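testing teh design pipeline on a random one, pls ignore if ur not involved
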Protein backbone atom coordinates (compact mmCIF):
# COMPACT_ATOMS: atom_id res chain seq x y z
CA UNK A 1 0.00 0.00 0.00
CA UNK A 2 1.21 3.49 -0.85
CA UNK A 3 2.45 5.04 2.42
CA UNK A 4 1.49 8.56 1.37
CA UNK A 5 -2.01 7.38 0.47
CA UNK A 6 -2.43 5.75 3.88
CA UNK A 7 -1.18 8.81 5.74
CA UNK A 8 -3.44 11.10 3.73
CA UNK A 9 -6.45 8.83 4.28
CA UNK A 10 -5.77 8.69 8.03
CA UNK A 11 -5.50 12.47 8.14
CA UNK A 12 -8.76 13.18 6.34
CA UNK A 13 -10.68 10.51 8.31
CA UNK A 14 -9.55 11.64 11.78
CA UNK A 15 -12.74 13.67 12.42
CA UNK A 16 -14.75 10.57 11.55
CA UNK A 17 -12.55 8.51 13.90
CA UNK A 18 -13.37 10.68 16.91
CA UNK A 19 -17.03 10.89 15.99
CA UNK A 20 -17.47 7.15 15.39
CA UNK A 21 -15.52 6.11 18.49
CA UNK A 22 -17.48 8.50 20.71
CA UNK A 23 -20.83 7.26 19.39
CA UNK A 24 -19.81 3.61 18.87
CA UNK A 25 -18.85 3.13 22.53
CA UNK A 26 -22.33 4.08 23.85
CA UNK A 27 -23.83 1.79 21.21
CA UNK A 28 -21.75 -1.14 22.42
CA UNK A 29 -22.79 -0.42 26.00
CA UNK A 30 -26.45 -0.34 24.94
CA UNK A 31 -26.24 -3.71 23.16
CA UNK A 32 -24.90 -5.56 26.21
CA UNK A 33 -27.08 -3.57 28.60
CA UNK A 34 -30.10 -4.76 26.58
CA UNK A 35 -29.17 -8.37 27.40
CA UNK A 36 -27.38 -9.39 24.21
CA UNK A 37 -23.85 -10.89 23.92
CA UNK A 38 -20.98 -8.49 23.33
CA UNK A 39 -20.24 -9.83 19.85
CA UNK A 40 -23.62 -8.66 18.52
CA UNK A 41 -22.34 -5.07 18.68
CA UNK A 42 -19.42 -5.43 16.21
CA UNK A 43 -21.50 -7.84 14.13
CA UNK A 44 -24.12 -5.12 13.64
CA UNK A 45 -21.32 -2.71 12.73
CA UNK A 46 -20.27 -5.08 9.95
CA UNK A 47 -23.67 -6.32 8.77
CA UNK A 48 -25.56 -3.02 8.95
CA UNK A 49 -23.00 -0.19 9.24
CA UNK A 50 -25.52 2.55 9.86
CA UNK A 51 -25.15 4.54 13.07
CA UNK A 52 -28.65 5.85 13.64
CA UNK A 53 -30.12 2.66 12.19
CA UNK A 54 -28.20 0.50 14.67
CA UNK A 55 -29.19 2.63 17.67
CA UNK A 56 -32.76 2.50 16.49
CA UNK A 57 -32.59 -1.26 15.91
CA UNK A 58 -31.45 -1.94 19.48
CA UNK A 59 -34.30 0.20 20.79
CA UNK A 60 -36.75 -1.90 18.77
CA UNK A 61 -35.08 -5.20 19.74
CA UNK A 62 -35.43 -4.26 23.41
CA UNK A 63 -39.19 -3.80 23.07
CA UNK A 64 -39.80 -6.95 21.04
CA UNK A 65 -40.88 -5.07 17.91
CA UNK A 66 -42.04 -7.25 15.02
CA UNK A 67 -39.64 -7.77 12.10
CA UNK A 68 -41.82 -5.98 9.53
CA UNK A 69 -41.74 -2.75 11.56
CA UNK A 70 -37.97 -2.94 11.99
CA UNK A 71 -37.40 -3.48 8.26
CA UNK A 72 -39.74 -0.65 7.24
CA UNK A 73 -38.15 1.77 9.69
CA UNK A 74 -34.63 0.87 8.54
CA UNK A 75 -35.66 1.39 4.91
CA UNK A 76 -37.11 4.84 5.61
CA UNK A 77 -34.06 5.79 7.65
CA UNK A 78 -31.74 4.69 4.85
CA UNK A 79 -33.62 6.02 1.83
CA UNK A 80 -31.27 9.01 1.70
CA UNK A 81 -28.55 6.59 0.56
CA UNK A 82 -30.33 6.39 -2.78
CA UNK A 83 -29.46 10.01 -3.41
CA UNK A 84 -25.91 9.62 -2.14
CA UNK A 85 -25.53 6.85 -4.69
CA UNK A 86 -26.92 9.02 -7.46
CA UNK A 87 -24.21 11.58 -6.70
CA UNK A 88 -21.49 8.91 -6.72
CA UNK A 89 -22.41 7.03 -9.91
CA UNK A 90 -19.94 8.92 -12.10
CA UNK A 91 -17.25 8.88 -9.41
CA UNK A 92 -17.44 5.11 -8.89
CA UNK A 93 -18.31 3.84 -12.38
CA UNK A 94 -14.67 3.34 -13.42
CA UNK A 95 -13.83 1.20 -10.37
CA UNK A 96 -15.82 -1.92 -11.19
CA UNK A 97 -13.82 -4.35 -9.00
CA UNK A 98 -13.99 -2.07 -5.96
CA UNK A 99 -17.54 -0.84 -6.50
CA UNK A 100 -19.32 -3.56 -4.45
CA UNK A 101 -17.59 -2.48 -1.24
CA UNK A 102 -17.75 1.20 -2.16
CA UNK A 103 -21.53 0.91 -2.50
CA UNK A 104 -21.87 -1.14 0.67
CA UNK A 105 -19.94 1.38 2.78
CA UNK A 106 -21.78 4.57 1.78
CA UNK A 107 -22.63 6.56 4.92
CA UNK A 108 -23.23 10.24 5.63
CA UNK A 109 -19.63 10.80 6.72
CA UNK A 110 -18.00 8.70 3.99
CA UNK A 111 -20.13 10.41 1.35
CA UNK A 112 -19.02 13.80 2.68
CA UNK A 113 -15.34 12.81 2.55
CA UNK A 114 -15.42 11.15 -0.87
CA UNK A 115 -17.18 14.11 -2.47
CA UNK A 116 -15.02 16.83 -0.90
CA UNK A 117 -11.49 15.46 -0.38
CA UNK A 118 -8.96 15.52 -3.21
CA UNK A 119 -7.27 12.26 -4.20
CA UNK A 120 -3.46 12.49 -3.67
CA UNK A 121 -1.39 12.93 -6.80
CA UNK A 122 -0.26 9.69 -8.40
CA UNK A 123 -2.76 7.60 -6.40
CA UNK A 124 -5.50 5.45 -7.94
CA UNK A 125 -8.82 7.09 -7.03
CA UNK A 126 -10.57 3.75 -6.55
CA UNK A 127 -7.96 2.57 -4.06
CA UNK A 128 -8.16 5.83 -2.14
CA UNK A 129 -11.97 5.81 -1.93
CA UNK A 130 -11.84 2.17 -0.86
CA UNK A 131 -9.32 2.95 1.88
CA UNK A 132 -11.30 5.91 3.20
CA UNK A 133 -14.46 3.77 3.30
CA UNK A 134 -12.64 0.91 5.02
CA UNK A 135 -11.09 3.18 7.66
CA UNK A 136 -14.45 4.77 8.42
CA UNK A 137 -16.12 1.40 8.94
CA UNK A 138 -13.16 0.18 10.99
CA UNK A 139 -13.52 3.14 13.34
CA UNK A 140 -17.20 2.36 13.84
CA UNK A 141 -16.65 -1.36 14.48
CA UNK A 142 -13.81 -0.58 16.91
CA UNK A 143 -16.05 1.83 18.83
CA UNK A 144 -18.85 -0.75 18.99
CA UNK A 145 -16.42 -3.41 20.23
CA UNK A 146 -14.84 -1.18 22.87
CA UNK A 147 -18.24 -0.25 24.27
CA UNK A 148 -19.41 -3.87 24.47
CA UNK A 149 -16.10 -5.00 25.99
CA UNK A 150 -16.15 -2.18 28.55
CA UNK A 151 -19.57 -3.31 29.74
CA UNK A 152 -18.35 -6.88 30.26
CA UNK A 153 -15.37 -5.63 32.26
CA UNK A 154 -17.56 -3.43 34.43
CA UNK A 155 -19.96 -6.33 34.87
CA UNK A 156 -17.14 -8.56 36.08
CA UNK A 157 -16.33 -6.04 38.83
CA UNK A 158 -19.99 -5.34 39.69
CA UNK A 159 -19.75 -1.77 38.43
CA UNK A 160 -22.55 -1.84 35.89
CA UNK A 161 -24.85 0.07 38.24
CA UNK A 162 -22.79 3.14 37.44
CA UNK A 163 -23.90 2.86 33.82
CA UNK A 164 -27.53 3.54 34.69
CA UNK A 165 -28.69 6.26 32.31
CA UNK A 166 -26.19 5.52 29.54
CA UNK A 167 -29.12 4.68 27.27
CA UNK A 168 -29.83 8.42 27.14
CA UNK A 169 -27.12 8.47 24.44
CA UNK A 170 -29.79 7.19 22.05
CA UNK A 171 -32.08 10.13 22.80
CA UNK A 172 -29.12 12.52 22.55
CA UNK A 173 -28.21 11.11 19.15
CA UNK A 174 -31.72 11.68 17.82
CA UNK A 175 -31.75 15.24 19.22
CA UNK A 176 -28.48 15.96 17.39
CA UNK A 177 -29.77 14.45 14.14
CA UNK A 178 -33.08 16.34 14.41
CA UNK A 179 -31.26 19.64 15.04
CA UNK A 180 -28.97 19.00 12.06
CA UNK A 181 -31.95 18.28 9.81
CA UNK A 182 -33.74 21.48 10.84
CA UNK A 183 -30.63 23.65 10.47
CA UNK A 184 -29.57 22.21 7.11
CA UNK A 185 -33.04 22.20 5.52
CA UNK A 186 -34.48 25.40 7.05
CA UNK A 187 -37.89 23.71 7.24
CA UNK A 188 -39.77 22.96 10.46
CA UNK A 189 -42.93 21.48 8.94
CA UNK A 190 -41.62 17.90 8.92
CA UNK A 191 -40.35 17.98 12.53
CA UNK A 192 -43.57 19.62 13.75
CA UNK A 193 -45.75 17.05 11.99
CA UNK A 194 -43.58 14.20 13.27
CA UNK A 195 -43.64 15.50 16.84
CA UNK A 196 -47.42 15.98 16.89
CA UNK A 197 -48.33 12.63 15.34
CA UNK A 198 -45.78 10.57 17.28
CA UNK A 199 -46.68 12.45 20.48
CA UNK A 200 -50.31 11.47 19.95
CA UNK A 201 -49.48 7.79 19.37
CA UNK A 202 -47.18 7.77 22.43
CA UNK A 203 -50.07 9.22 24.46
CA UNK A 204 -52.33 6.42 23.14
CA UNK A 205 -49.64 3.92 24.12
CA UNK A 206 -49.42 5.36 27.63
CA UNK A 207 -53.21 5.18 27.87
CA UNK A 208 -53.12 1.49 26.92
CA UNK A 209 -54.86 1.98 23.57
CA UNK A 210 -51.89 1.37 21.28
CA UNK A 211 -49.03 -1.14 21.00
CA UNK A 212 -45.47 0.11 21.25
CA UNK A 213 -44.56 -1.89 18.13
CA UNK A 214 -46.87 0.33 16.05
CA UNK A 215 -45.72 3.76 17.25
CA UNK A 216 -42.88 4.22 14.75
CA UNK A 217 -44.59 2.63 11.77
CA UNK A 218 -47.88 4.46 12.11
CA UNK A 219 -46.25 7.80 13.00
CA UNK A 220 -44.01 7.77 9.94
CA UNK A 221 -46.80 6.63 7.61
CA UNK A 222 -49.30 9.21 8.84
CA UNK A 223 -46.59 11.85 8.90
CA UNK A 224 -45.68 11.24 5.25
CA UNK A 225 -49.37 11.35 4.37
CA UNK A 226 -49.76 14.73 6.06
CA UNK A 227 -46.69 16.03 4.25
CA UNK A 228 -48.16 14.87 0.95
CA UNK A 229 -51.38 16.72 1.71
CA UNK A 230 -49.57 19.88 2.84
CA UNK A 231 -46.67 19.97 0.39
CA UNK A 232 -47.47 17.37 -2.28
CA UNK A 233 -49.46 19.58 -4.62
CA UNK A 234 -46.90 22.38 -4.77
CA UNK A 235 -44.03 19.90 -5.01
CA UNK A 236 -45.59 17.99 -7.91
CA UNK A 237 -46.55 21.22 -9.71
CA UNK A 238 -42.93 22.43 -9.55
CA UNK A 239 -41.39 19.03 -10.21
CA UNK A 240 -39.01 18.07 -12.99
CA UNK A 241 -39.37 15.25 -15.45
CA UNK A 242 -36.96 12.40 -16.00
CA UNK A 243 -34.89 14.56 -18.35
CA UNK A 244 -34.45 17.17 -15.62
CA UNK A 245 -36.69 19.74 -17.30
CA UNK A 246 -39.53 21.45 -15.46
CA UNK A 247 -42.89 19.79 -16.16
CA UNK A 248 -44.69 21.79 -18.91
CA UNK A 249 -47.45 24.09 -17.65
CA UNK A 250 -50.20 22.12 -19.41
CA UNK A 251 -49.18 19.02 -17.44
CA UNK A 252 -48.90 20.68 -14.04
CA UNK A 253 -52.53 20.27 -13.13
CA UNK A 254 -52.46 16.56 -13.96
CA UNK A 255 -49.28 16.07 -11.97
CA UNK A 256 -50.61 17.97 -8.93
CA UNK A 257 -53.83 15.93 -8.98
CA UNK A 258 -51.78 12.75 -9.06
CA UNK A 259 -49.94 13.91 -5.95
CA UNK A 260 -53.21 14.68 -4.15
CA UNK A 261 -54.68 11.30 -5.10
CA UNK A 262 -51.55 9.53 -3.91
CA UNK A 263 -51.83 11.30 -0.56
CA UNK A 264 -55.49 10.40 -0.15
CA UNK A 265 -54.90 6.77 -1.10
CA UNK A 266 -52.02 6.48 1.34
CA UNK A 267 -54.15 8.02 4.09
CA UNK A 268 -56.73 5.24 3.64
CA UNK A 269 -54.02 2.58 3.77
CA UNK A 270 -52.42 4.09 6.86
CA UNK A 271 -55.80 4.44 8.56
CA UNK A 272 -56.15 0.66 8.21
CA UNK A 273 -52.69 0.23 9.70
CA UNK A 274 -53.70 2.47 12.59
CA UNK A 275 -56.72 0.28 13.31
CA UNK A 276 -54.60 -2.86 13.12
CA UNK A 277 -52.23 -1.54 15.76
CA UNK A 278 -54.91 -0.08 18.02
CA UNK A 279 -56.34 -1.92 20.98
CA UNK A 280 -58.64 -3.78 21.54
CA UNK A 281 -58.83 -4.61 17.80
CA UNK A 282 -55.16 -5.45 17.37
CA UNK A 283 -54.90 -8.19 14.71
CA UNK A 284 -51.12 -8.38 14.82
CA UNK A 285 -49.08 -10.26 17.39
CA UNK A 286 -47.82 -8.14 20.24
CA UNK A 287 -44.13 -7.81 20.84
CA UNK A 288 -42.45 -9.55 23.77
CA UNK A 289 -40.34 -7.78 26.34
CA UNK A 290 -37.24 -8.39 24.22
CA UNK A 291 -36.40 -10.16 20.98
CA UNK A 292 -34.57 -13.44 21.44
CA UNK A 293 -30.99 -13.59 20.20
CA UNK A 294 -32.06 -15.70 17.21
CA UNK A 295 -34.81 -13.23 16.28
CA UNK A 296 -32.40 -10.31 16.75
CA UNK A 297 -29.88 -11.94 14.39
CA UNK A 298 -32.58 -12.40 11.75
CA UNK A 299 -33.53 -8.73 12.17
CA UNK A 300 -29.88 -7.63 11.94
CA UNK A 301 -29.28 -9.38 8.62
CA UNK A 302 -32.69 -8.41 7.23
CA UNK A 303 -32.03 -4.77 8.15
CA UNK A 304 -28.53 -5.01 6.69
CA UNK A 305 -30.00 -6.29 3.43
CA UNK A 306 -32.47 -3.38 3.33
CA UNK A 307 -29.74 -0.81 4.02
CA UNK A 308 -27.53 -2.38 1.36
CA UNK A 309 -30.42 -2.35 -1.12
CA UNK A 310 -30.86 1.41 -0.73
CA UNK A 311 -27.14 1.87 -1.43
CA UNK A 312 -27.12 -0.40 -4.49
CA UNK A 313 -30.41 0.76 -5.99
CA UNK A 314 -29.08 3.96 -7.62
CA UNK A 315 -26.31 2.08 -9.40
CA UNK A 316 -28.68 -0.67 -10.53
CA UNK A 317 -31.68 1.39 -11.60
CA UNK A 318 -31.01 5.11 -11.78
CA UNK A 319 -27.69 5.24 -13.56
CA UNK A 320 -29.33 6.62 -16.71
CA UNK A 321 -32.50 8.27 -15.40
CA UNK A 322 -33.80 10.32 -12.50
CA UNK A 323 -35.66 8.57 -9.64
CA UNK A 324 -39.48 8.77 -9.48
CA UNK A 325 -41.05 11.89 -8.00
CA UNK A 326 -42.36 9.89 -5.06
CA UNK A 327 -38.84 8.93 -3.98
CA UNK A 328 -37.56 12.46 -4.50
CA UNK A 329 -40.39 13.82 -2.36
CA UNK A 330 -39.60 11.37 0.46
CA UNK A 331 -35.89 12.19 0.30
CA UNK A 332 -36.63 15.88 0.61
CA UNK A 333 -39.25 15.86 3.36
CA UNK A 334 -38.98 12.53 5.21
CA UNK A 335 -35.60 12.76 7.05
CA UNK A 336 -36.54 15.63 9.42
CA UNK A 337 -39.92 14.01 10.09
CA UNK A 338 -38.35 10.62 10.80
CA UNK A 339 -35.72 12.04 13.14
CA UNK A 340 -38.38 13.84 15.16
CA UNK A 341 -40.50 10.68 15.30
CA UNK A 342 -37.51 8.74 16.61
CA UNK A 343 -36.84 11.44 19.20
CA UNK A 344 -40.42 11.53 20.48
CA UNK A 345 -40.49 7.72 20.48
CA UNK A 346 -37.76 7.79 23.13
CA UNK A 347 -40.21 9.48 25.50
CA UNK A 348 -42.55 6.49 25.58
CA UNK A 349 -40.66 4.87 28.47
CA UNK A 350 -40.30 8.01 30.57
CA UNK A 351 -42.15 7.80 33.90
CA UNK A 352 -44.24 10.95 34.26
CA UNK A 353 -45.64 10.02 37.67
CA UNK A 354 -43.18 12.30 39.51
CA UNK A 355 -40.88 15.21 38.74
CA UNK A 356 -37.87 13.27 40.06
CA UNK A 357 -38.31 10.71 37.29
CA UNK A 358 -39.01 12.94 34.28
CA UNK A 359 -37.40 16.36 34.94
CA UNK A 360 -33.79 15.14 34.40
CA UNK A 361 -34.87 13.72 31.04
CA UNK A 362 -36.42 16.97 29.82
CA UNK A 363 -33.54 19.05 31.17
CA UNK A 364 -30.95 16.93 29.36
CA UNK A 365 -32.92 16.87 26.10
CA UNK A 366 -32.94 20.68 26.17
CA UNK A 367 -29.25 20.68 27.11
CA UNK A 368 -28.13 18.51 24.21
CA UNK A 369 -30.10 20.69 21.79
CA UNK A 370 -28.57 23.91 23.13
CA UNK A 371 -25.04 22.48 23.20
CA UNK A 372 -25.32 21.27 19.63
CA UNK A 373 -26.78 24.50 18.29
CA UNK A 374 -23.93 26.46 19.88
CA UNK A 375 -20.95 24.18 19.22
CA UNK A 376 -22.19 21.88 16.38
CA UNK A 377 -20.05 19.07 17.83
CA UNK A 378 -21.83 15.71 17.95
CA UNK A 379 -19.30 14.13 20.30
CA UNK A 380 -19.53 16.94 22.87
CA UNK A 381 -23.31 17.10 22.59
CA UNK A 382 -23.96 13.37 23.01
CA UNK A 383 -21.33 12.50 25.61
CA UNK A 384 -21.81 15.70 27.63
CA UNK A 385 -25.59 15.39 27.86
CA UNK A 386 -25.42 11.64 28.61
CA UNK A 387 -23.02 12.18 31.51
CA UNK A 388 -25.23 15.01 32.78
CA UNK A 389 -28.28 12.76 32.66
CA UNK A 390 -26.47 9.99 34.55
CA UNK A 391 -25.57 12.49 37.28
CA UNK A 392 -28.92 14.28 37.46
CA UNK A 393 -30.94 11.06 37.54
CA UNK A 394 -29.02 10.07 40.68
CA UNK A 395 -28.87 13.46 42.39
CA UNK A 396 -32.50 14.32 41.67
CA UNK A 397 -33.70 10.98 42.96
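output:
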Amino acid sequence: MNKNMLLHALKVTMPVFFGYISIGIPFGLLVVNAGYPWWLSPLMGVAMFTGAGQFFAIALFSTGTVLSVIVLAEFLLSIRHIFYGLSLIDRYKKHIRRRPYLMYSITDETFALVTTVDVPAGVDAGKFYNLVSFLDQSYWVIGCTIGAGAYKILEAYNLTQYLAGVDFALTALFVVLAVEQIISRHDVLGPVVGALICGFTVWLFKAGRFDSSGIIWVSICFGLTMLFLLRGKSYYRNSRGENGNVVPSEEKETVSKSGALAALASMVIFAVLFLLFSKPHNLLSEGTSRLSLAAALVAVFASGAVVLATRILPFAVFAKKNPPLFIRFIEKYAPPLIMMVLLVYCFKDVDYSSAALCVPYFVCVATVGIIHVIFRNSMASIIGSTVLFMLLSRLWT
